[in-house]
Structure formats: structure tokens, C-alpha cells
Amino acid sequence: RAKASGRGRAEVFDETLRRQLQQRAELEAAIAAGLVNGEMQVAYQPVIDVASDRIIGYEALIRWERPGIGLVPPDEFIPVAEGSRLIGDVDRWMLHAATQQLAQWRAESPAGPGDPDPTIAVNISGRHLADPRVITDVADALAASGLPARLLTLEVTETVLVDDPLAYDHLTELRALGVSIAIDDFGTGYTSIGQLRNMPVDTLKIDRSFVASTEPAHRELVALMIRAAHTFGLTVVAEGVEEPAQLARLKAQDCDQAQGFLLYRPMGAPEAGALLRRTEAAGSV
Ligand code: C2E
Ligand code: MG
Ligand code: MG
Ligand code: MG
Predict the structure, then answer these.
(1) Where are the annotated coiled coils located (predicted)?
(2) 0.80 cut: is pTM over it?
(3) Which of 173, 216, 252, 255 is 20 to 30 A off residue 35, Cα-Cα?
């Protein structure tokens, strides 16, 4: 009896697992098809200089409009892509799309490149960063678009840097290409502020949870992160700024750059291009 019910549970478990694996395989196939069929798009979120309010560039964020289903958020399909080799395809697609777009905006600008010359930030998955191919992928995107390397920033999460010495080496090689490196979502992993000194990175992006926190200890931590980053020569970006009081506090804390719904939401390419033209015309980009 006991044996029979035990086997019954095992069968139910097998069935659940089988279904999950199948759903995952289907999602992977759909992502692969989506890349080929033009279902992916880039949303651009402006990043501003806190002191002057000027737009200094954009972060490129992937958007997937899945036929018959609608918009699938990155948090729902990036982790699946990261579980397979697909993430390389996703990142390569994004690298090409984003560099191409910025190069095109620059070429179309009647006044020539702005001042400051706008930058583009692209998110690179940890799995992709651990693959030596990431270096040729980035070099290829720069060569194909003709975008100057100094205008491209690669965003990587801090967990990657701590866990993987290979990723560390790759960052050094990427920087040698002339691109900048930003640590994304800083504060959510295990990196201590002191470790920043030895990291091959240029920019620190403070995670939204710290920016939003009303706890005095967190506010002090933000101030400390900014001071330490500056000591090590890093630029600091605050993520997820939603309220005027947060922006005012960041300004008082000497934060360099900010991004968030208070300032601008991620937008489509036509809108982002038009915004660039307007700010150029106003002499502010
Ligand atoms: P992330 O790189 O930290 O990007 C910031 C996320 O915060 C974006 O979500 C953005 O839309 C959102 N955000 C910006 N301002 C605010 C705000 O004021 N409030 C709130 N609540 N959210 C804000 P999104 O576009 O859904 O992307 C989520 C994550 O997916 C990204 O986090 C990034 O880790 C990943 N991702 C997005 N695009 C790509 C890509 O092309 N390649 C890879 N590997 N990962 C990507
Ligand atoms: Mg990012
Ligand atoms: Mg982030
Ligand atoms: Mg994130």
C-alpha cells in the first residue's frame, strides 16, 4: 500500500517536472524565434546629470512583444535565456541594436554630436560575461555600428564579479576596447564598498531599493557609497528615482547621475530620438 502511494506521488512529481521542462523548452524556442522574427525591441531610458538636469545618455532595455500574448517583461524571459546559450543571442542582438541606433542618431544630428556626446548603456548577463566570446561580441557591435567605444557602457551585476574570476578578466579586456563598465544593482549582492577599489569598473549604479528606502541607515549607506565611489574615481548613478525628495537628497549627497520614473520612463526609439533632437536644439545634450 505504502509502496503504491509512494509510486503514485513519484508519478505526479514526474509529470509536474516533465510539464515544467516542456514549458521551459517552449519558452526557449519562442525567445529564439522572437529574436529572428523581429519581436524584440529596445526601450531607452534617459539618464540625467544630477547637477545640470541634462540628459547624458540612455540605458537600453529589451522589450519582447510576443505574438498573441503581448509584452513579456525581461524579468520573465531573461532568466530563462540565462539558463541556456540563448542569452548570448539576446545580448548580441541588443548590443547590435543599441549601438546601431545611437550611431544613427549621431549621424542624423544636424548640429553634429552633442555636448556631452550621448552614451548608451547595455546590460550584459553574467553567463555571457563569463564566456570569452563576449569580447568579440562587443568589438563586433562597435565595428558594425561605427560607434566610438567611449560612448558604450556595459552594465553587469555585482554578483557576477564576486563569483567568477574569469568574468573579472573579461571586464579588463573589454575596458581595453575603450568601453566603460558599470556595476548594476549595487548594494543587493555581497560586494563590500572597499572591494570597489580593485574592480575594473568605471561606474556604480546604486540599486533602486536603497534609493527608495526611508530608513535612515540606508540613507547613510547611500551617502557612504557615493563618497567611497568618488574616492575610487567612479561615477555614481542612482537607479529608480521616483520622488522629488529622493532626487533632492541625491543631489545633496553629490550623486552624479540619476534615472527613474520621476525623470523619464523607458521609451521607444522614435520618442527617444525626438527627445535627443529637442535637447540638442535647446543646447542641453
Ligand atoms: P536593470 O538593468 O536594473 O534595469 C532597470 C529596471 O528598472 C528596468 O526594468 C527599468 O524599466 C526599471 N526602472 C527604471 N526606473 C524605474 C523607477 O523609477 N521605478 C521602478 N519601479 N522601476 C524603474 P526592466 O526594463 O523591466 O528590466 C529589468 C531587468 O532586466 C534589468 O534591470 C536588467 O537586469 C534585465 N534586462 C533588461 N534588458 C536586458 C538586456 O538587453 N540584456 C540583459 N542581459 N538583461 C536585460
Ligand atoms: Mg541595467
Ligand atoms: Mg539596475
Ligand atoms: Mg536589475
Answers:
(1) none
(2) yes
(3) 173
> Residues enclosing ligand 1, CB less than 6 A?
45, 61-62, 73-75, 78, 90-91, 94, 123-125, 155, 184-185, 208, 240-242, 259-261, 266
Q: Is the dihedral of CA 176, 182, 183, 184 positive or negative?
A: negative
Q: Residues 32-35: contacts with CB within 8 Å, 24+ apart?
A: 32/86, 32/89, 34/64, 34/66, 35/89, 35/90, 35/93
Nearest CA to ligand 1 atom 8: 61
Can you tell me which atom of ligand 1 is nearest the CA of 261? Answer: 18
Give me the interface pTM, i.e. the ipTM: 0.98
DSSP-assigned letters across all residues of 133-193: HHHHHHHHHHHHH---GGGEEEEEEHHHHHH-HHHHHHHHHHHHHT-EEEEEEETSSS--G
- Of the listed ligands, the closest to the CA of 94 is 1
Residue with CA closest to ligand 1 atom 2: 123
Ligand 4 ion: Cβ-proximal residues, 5 Å cutoff: 185
55 SS3 class = strand
pLDDT (tens digit per residue) in 58-88:
999 999 999 999 999 999 999 999 999 999 9
Long-range contacts of 23-27 (CB under 8 A, 24+ apart): 24/80, 24/83, 27/77, 27/80
Residue pair 145/96 in contact by the 8 Å Cβ criterion: yes
CA atoms of 177 and 141, how far apart (whole Å):
12
